[in-house]
Write a structure and sequence with these properties.
Length: 367
């Protein structure tokens, strides 16, 4: 029986833990507190800071754990990769690659201007004159979960929101990027030995009053022409090779300007929006299962199920303002739902994650 440690206990880590248990693995989880469903789902839970490498290494060696991994967390990936390198444990990408993808400025630098999907950007540690044309996106250089993101239209708006963005950066930096005015895409792919073996693009429907915050994922995309799909595939594989992602799951957030695709985010992990769940139902390929079979046994046979056919589906998030009290009764689930999950019980306190409009549950249905 393989022993696997998952860093983090949020619902997206719970997905991984349940898949591992279905595969017959003994599951371990850790976090700073027992404050997520992954803690109860795991066979073993311990209070350990997921960024505390010495304590994690001691825990791994004490329990003879075979693999350390995480899903949906940019914070956890560099840590998991560094520990795996030090202890000679299985891993998909180096800690350097995980670091690059976790820092938007470094990612843009690594892609270079030769990458067709890259966009103009500027990095600041203090307010400076914006050289990127307005409107532009202001973001922390190394945060996750859509925290501290602002659409700015002038130098004065940079000044107004600079500290609100920078406070979410562990390195005290922000990045200003050209604003791409067009539909948003989530692109989930899988790499095997440097080759792109699976890719599905979905429409990313965001809340109009909350820039960048996700409301729905719609599979498959309806906004791309056939030639654009080929262009996305080419950009995806090229970007992975430039950064050094040769194996494992990869998630891109992209936007279209006309039919020209641009990279907004890229990360060598499964996304944090349960997309593996909807894609499993829509394409027949379980990316969560594939990830762990590949990592544990070098088995990628799950990809044999990929025919290219996609059953149209939607994943819809319920959201509430943070620091409010959860009330399930204000939400409705349609009759054609195929799966649903609540992050909170009615009466629970909704913890701030992005600080604006936080996920409290989701459902998947046929479209």
């Amino acid at each position: 029986m393989k022993k696997v440690l998952i860093l983090g206990v949020a619902s997206v880590q719970m997905d991984a833990i349940l898949q591992l248990k279905e595969m017959g693995c003994e599951t371990y989880a850790c976090g700073m507190a027992k404050d997520g469903p992954g803690a109860d789902a795991a066979d073993h839970f311990d209070v350990i800071n997921i960024l505390g490498e010495p304590a994690l290494i001691e825990h791994i060696q004490k329990n003879k754990i075979d693999v350390v991994y995480s899903t949906g967390s940019d914070l956890a990936m560099p840590v998991a990769c560094r520990i795996s390198e030090k202890l000679d444990m299985p891993h998909f990408v180096s800690s350097e690659v995980a670091y690059i993808c976790n820092h938007k400025n470094t990612m843009r630098d690594t892609l270079t201007s030769e990458c067709k999907g890259n966009i103009p950007y500027q990095v600041m540690s203090k307010p400076e004159q914006v050289m990127v044309p307005f409107p532009a996106m202001l973001k922390p250089s190394d945060a996750q979960g859509q925290r501290g993101i602002f659409l700015i239209n002038s130098q004065s708006e940079l000044q107004e929101h600079f500290e609100d963005a920078r406070k979410f950066s562990r390195e005290g930096k922000v990045i200003v990027e050209k604003y791409i005015d067009g539909p948003e895409l989530s692109v989930n792919g899988y790499m095997v030995d440097g080759k792109l073996k699976y890719l599905v693009a979905s429409d990313r429907d965001t809340w109009p009053e909350y820039t960048g915050l996700i409301h729905k994922h719609i599979v498959p995309t309806s906004v791309m022409e056939a030639e654009t799909v080929k262009e996305v595939q080419s950009i995806f594989e090229d970007a992975c090779q430039r950064v050094g992602i040769m194996n494992g799951p990869v998630y891109f957030q992209m936007k279209l300007e006309g039919q020209t695709p641009y990279i907004i985010e890229m990360t060598p992990r499964l996304d944090g929006c349960h997309m593996w769940n909807i894609l499993n139902r829509a394409t027949g390929v379980n990316l969560m299962k594939l990830t762990f079979e590949h990592l544990l046994h070098n088995d990628v046979s799950e990809l044999d199920k990929w025919t290219g056919n996609i059953n149209p589906m939607e994943l819809v998030f319920f959201c509430q303002e943070p620091n409010s009290i959860m009330d399930r009764d204000i939400f409705g689930i349609p009759d054609d739902v195929v799966d649903s999950f609540w992050y909170y019980e009615t009466g629970d306190f909704v913890r701030p994650v992005n600080g604006r409009y936080d996920k409290v549950g989701y459902y998947i249905h046929n479209k």
